[in-house]
Each structure stands twice: as C-alpha cells, then as structure tokens.
Amino acid sequence: MIRLCTMDDAATIYEIINDAASAYKGTIPEDRYREPYMPVEELEAEIADGVLFWGVERDGGLVGVMGIQDKGEVALIRHAYVRTTERNGGIGTRLLSHLMSQTEKPVLIGTWEAAEWAIRFYQKNGFAFVSPEEKRILLQRFWNVPERQIETSVVLCDSRWSAN
Asked: Which stretches make up the N-acetyltransferase domain (predicted)?
C-alpha cells in the first residue's frame, strides 16, 4: 500500500534514508558522505520546507519512501530510498509512478553523478539528463545545496520539462 507519511513516520523515514544511503559510502565524493547521511534536524527541515513523503507499507511497516516538493513551476522528487533488504523489488518504481501522478508540473530529480544505479533507475522510468549548464542553473534555483554538491550532481527531467 502506498500512503502519505505523517510526522509520526519521521523516525522510520530517518531510519530508511540512512539505511539506504549506506550505498553512497565509497561512491560519492568522500567529503559529501557522512553518518548519519541525513541527520534528524535535516529531515525535519526538509519536511518543514514542503517535502511530502510518501511510503510503501508492507506488513505494517514502511519499506520505502520518496518525497515530492512543489516548487511553483516544477515539482522535485526528493529523497528516494528503499530499505536495503527490500531493493530491486519494484518499490521505487511504484513510488515514483505514484508521485508522478500527483502533479501535472514538469518533474526534476537531482542525484549524485556517481550514483549510477540511481541514474539508471530514473532513465528506465523515462527521465533524461539536462545539460551541465542547465543543471547548475536548476540546482541553484530549486535546491538549497552547496557548491560542491552542484559540482558532483546531475539533474534529470521528465518529458514535461522544457528549458525556459
């Protein structure tokens, strides 16, 4: 079952994100990886900034989460994570499809350039890279990330996106 998460789910969202983000260790730039990958305060700030988390529930517990954030002219897919024990079972695809159905706006996704598995997942689901120049503009405009993250990330877009 896919459902909208509530603040009661924050501890579980935190757990899922930090479990799944262990895949980044040794892959993304060392200066960008930390443990926990997303501290509680950062998760709370993301929720306060309008990231709506949706989750797949199985056997009474969440096994994957993904956020969507309305940024006016676009929607951002944020923080897509599935428990390591549940990977490659279609949970991410189900969540992405559900979130895509929640908006008519163009959808953008930012991820680490080195996270090849994530990029393949998004491409398999119809997303394509924006140009490096456009990536920089979009990350500065719609995300709040440091310069080092801009340098080491990519942005993908759905078919509704067209550069203005």
From this structure: 1-144
